[in-house]
From TrEMBL, chain B:
Molecular function via GO: transferase activity
Source species of the chain: Pediococcus cellicola
GO cellular component, one term: membrane
Keywords associated with the record: Transferase
Protein name: PTS EIIA type-4 domain-containing protein
């Protein structure tokens, strides 16, 4: 069974999680019924969770889960029939999900902010060496990795940007 | 529907630019920047110039910044003179984003209280989460 059959419509790396582009254009174009934030640190951060709950667009369900919890729930087929928009802050979380046997076949890279130790690979996407290794791991696992900031922009092959 | 976004200074231009940061490029927004050295006739003829670029069948409306301001007054005059178009004022980034998402303008204004004003903190436990 593919991840789409399990109700996961789109998987996106976006460090800012639920923000302008995500809450409006992405949620709308995917017709998402649920936003699932997967991040172990967010799960343990009351303030960040409050901000996410307040920011989620009206009528959209929200899950805030650890990688382990998300993989377990998805593999238990809890979201079949839903349109889940899965958000992570960093590629390492997707490596965890793959290691928990989630059949991820495609991911979209959105915003990854620039900071010390990261190099810019395109507008508003910067990666560290650790990120590059995580992306290589995902690629080797057969995941298609594209970069796309907003739905009206074309997808570009993300691995080409890392070269 | 085509939208003429018109406001004092560069508010219209910058608002459309900011909107496009969120939504990507939006073709239906046309900008008019009103500067204080313009007279109302200059603004009306500026609108004429923008509208002349539309096809005859195309519907359009004005999105202005503030009621009673010159961009808004000139838009009212233009609509009366040409017997076309409508004027909506109080334009914000949020309204532009909703329009870019394909929402109807009258629905946006009807539901404006749902997305403007004081944000109520939602910390309910009916969302799915782990501790």
């Amino acid at each position: 069974m593919s991840i789409a059959d399990k109700g996961i419509k789109n998987i996106r790396i976006d460090e800012r999680l639920i923000h302008g582009q995500v809450a409006t254009m992405w949620t709308n174009s995917l017709q998402a019924s649920r936003i699932m934030v997967v991040d172990d640190d967010v799960v343990n951060n009351k303030i960040e969770k409050m901000a996410l709950k307040t920011a989620v667009p009206m009528g959209i369900k929200l899950s805030i889960l650890t990688a382990k919890g998300a993989a377990k729930r998805i593999l238990e087929d809890r979201y079949i029939g839903q349109k889940v928009f899965l958000l992570v802050k960093k590629p390492q979380t997707l490596v965890e999900l793959i290691d928990y046997d989630l059949p991820i076949n495609k991911i979209v890279v959105g915003n990854m902010s620039s900071r010390e130790g990261r190099r810019s690979v395109k507008k508003s996407v910067a990666v560290s060496q650790d990120d590059v290794e995580a992306f290589n791991y995902l690629k080797t696992a057969g995941v298609q990795i594209v970069a796309q900031m907003v739905p009206s922009e074309p997808e570009v092959d993300f691995m080409n940007l890392l070269k | 529907m085509e939208y003429i976004v018109s406001a004092h200074g560069k508010y219209a231009e910058e608002m459309v630019k900011s909107c496009q940061l969120i939504t990507g490029k939006v073709g239906q927004f046309h900008v008019f920047n009103f500067s204080v050295d313009m007279g109302i006739d200059d603004v009306v003829s500026g609108y004429e110039k923008i509208v002349s670029g539309f096809s005859k069948k195309e519907k359009f409306c004005f999105l202005t910044d503030i009621k009673s301001g010159t961009p808004s007054n000139a838009a009212l005059i233009y609509c009366q003179l040409s017997n076309k178009g409508a004027v909506y004022t109080g334009t914000s980034l949020e309204i532009l984003v909703f329009l870019a998402m394909g929402e109807k303008i009258d629905d946006i204004y009807k539901n404006i209280e749902q997305f403007t004003g004081k944000l109520e903190i939602r910390d309910d436990s009916d969302e799915e989460e782990e501790e």
